[in-house]
Write a structure and sequence with these properties.
The chain has about 375 residues and is an alpha/beta fold. The protein contains 11 helices and 16 strands.
Length: about 375
């Protein structure tokens, strides 16, 4: 897979400072150079149209002006791949529309099923106080997540809510997601083009009825797989939950590849990861609980090689038709679809810090896909 003699490629990247520091490491830069690929920082203080030339653009910047710059650049340079489309990325900024795409996937699988947790969105404080969880098909505990998922620290502030007192303290707009006991393990599945890698991470411990009755209103955390020292107090519970734990079996790789391929085609994205949990009540049932665009790939083993191979394929047009492979939503297998309309009392109030994000007050229509063959 050596590059042609004398031919070099330039990939322009536009990333926030923190993202750039974690992703564009010297090891990645050097490996890419060996393959004839130069990673070039885009100057965000200058018009994109005046920079380059680039053979590809890699970005994770969210703003209307940047979106317009990408559009203008694409018109002038129609053959330059942009990874990825801002319109496709925006779907992941809303935690309801984010998971709806999972229900569009249909493929044949053996002995394994998947879906999404039951969830509703509440747009105002009055609706929270008057909320009848059981009437909406939910029961305590629930995970409370900000509706907006823009990658900011605020969007990662979540809580495990144990009772009505905890519910009353939530600040809408908020998504209430069914909490499913999953053995304290979450599977993070990284997708880079057609490459799929699954790793195990520690997660929230299971909640039993006894703990539910004695717990405070809620437990705050940043990410399910990134608990702080206080929330990880039960070290004995987690002693066997590290990456070397051989007791926790990974999901079947063919199953993960099918989900990843389905998501890739349905979303039109090539760089993302999704979080998967295994329902302890039904050992062969998995739930997709979150999808993130352009995640922290530096945490993934051998990320430099994986990303460099991906860049090479994109630049040499080896990636052109892969978006359509195995992604046809055909009549393979069976799929039971449950549709529940969950409507809050009012429209969405603006959430400070996220007013520029295109989060539409979509109708709360949840479709839980259960594929079983």
């Amino acid at each position: 897979m050596e590059e042609p003699m004398g031919r070099r490629f330039g990939i322009g990247y536009a990333l926030a400072p923190k993202k750039q520091a974690s992703f564009v490491q010297v090891s990645l830069i050097n490996l890419a150079k060996e393959r004839g690929i130069d990673l070039i920082k885009i100057d965000l203080e200058k018009p994109l149209i005046d920079q380059g030339p680039f053979d590809c653009i890699l970005h994770k910047i969210y703003s209307p002006s940047w979106k317009q710059q990408l559009s203008d650049y694409a018109v002038k340079n129609p053959n330059v791949p942009i990874i990825d489309s801002p319109n496709a990325i925006e779907r992941l900024h809303n935690r309801i529309s984010m998971l709806e795409v999972v229900t569009d996937i249909n493929f044949e699988c053996e002995k394994v099923s998947f879906g999404i947790p039951k969830q509703i969105v509440v747009y105002d404080a009055k609706a929270v106080k008057e909320l009848n969880l059981e009437g909406e098909g939910l029961k305590l505990p629930v995970i409370a997540k900000p509706l907006v998922a823009d990658g900011s620290a605020k969007s990662h502030k979540m809580s495990l809510v144990f009772n009505k007192d905890g519910l009353s303290k939530l600040k809408p707009p908020v998504v209430l997601q069914e909490f499913v006991n999953h053995g304290g393990v979450i599977f993070k599945v990284y997708v880079v083009g057609d490459y799929v890698k699954c790793v195990k991470r520690k997660s929230l411990p299971d909640v039993n009825e006894e703990k539910l009755g004695s717990s405070e209103g809620s437990l705050s955390f940043s990410q399910v797989s990134n608990l702080n020292s206080v929330e990880r107090a039960d070290d004995k519970y987690y002693s066997m939950m590290d990456l070397e734990d051989e007791k926790t079996e990974l999901p079947p790789i063919s199953f993960l590849v099918n989900i990843a391929s389905g998501l890739r085609g349905a979303m039109g994205l090539r760089l993302f990861n999704f979080d998967l949990i295994r329902d302890v009540r039904i050992g062969n049932r998995y739930l997709v609980i979150d999808i993130n665009y352009f995640p922290g790939y530096a945490k993934m083993p051998c990320y430099e090689r994986v990303l460099t191979d991906f860049f090479w394929d994109v630049l040499n047009n080896n990636d052109d038709n892969k978006m359509d492979l195995n992604l046809q939503s055909s009549n393979m297998g069976t799929c039971e679809m449950e549709v529940r309309k969950l409507v809050s009392n009012s429209e969405c109030e603006e959430d400070d810090g996220a007013t520029n994000l295109p989060v539409s007050p979509i109708k709360r229509e949840e479709k839980e896909s259960s594929i079983q063959v």
